[in-house]
């Protein structure tokens, strides 16, 4: 599994701490920063997808399962089913969304060596702690 990491994730974690004793303006500024950082994580995930050479759109081959808590992170099982007649690798961008559809996080998962006509699973794990009800969706999937 490949995940985006780095300073952006640290900023997101720091900003998810409850803001007490802050003005509404401070809370809005913090929300804007979190939104920008989430966008940066999504952009990093897209850059990773763009690095895949000779990938074919395989969104129909891949499904995201329900989310669940795993320690301080959110996970979802991702299943790739290979309809081709030779082994295939999959690179999948998974988006975690809140109950209103807002983007919370994006990660890239690689599932390698899926045999013809078979399925194989991988785990998408959020970069940071996500609160509230979340869902996982396949944002993009490439078979290569």
Describe what this molecule looks like in 3D.
The protein starts with 6 loop residues before the first helix and ends with a strand. Helix 1 runs antiparallel to helix 2 (about 25-50). It contains 2 helices and 7 strands, in the order H-H-E-E-E-E-E-E-E. The protein is α+β, with helices and mostly antiparallel strands and about 140 residues long. The strands form 2 sheets. Strands 1-7-4-5 form a 4-stranded antiparallel sheet, with helices on one face. The chain has a 3-stranded antiparallel sheet with strand order 2-3-6, with no helix packed on it.
Quick summary:
25% of the residues lie in helices and 42% in strands. It has helices at 7-15, 24-50, and strands at residues 56-57, 62-70, 73-81, 88-98, 103-114, 119-125, 134-143.
Describe the secondary structure blueprint for this structure:
Elements: H1 7-15, H2 24-50, E1 56-57, E2 62-70, E3 73-81, E4 88-98, E5 103-114, E6 119-125, E7 134-143
Antiparallel strand pairs: 1-7, 2-3, 3-6, 4-5, 4-7
Helix pairs in contact: 1-2
Kindly list the characteristics that best describe this protein.
7 strands; 144 residues; disordered N terminus; globular; alpha+beta; 25% helix; three-stranded antiparallel β-sheet
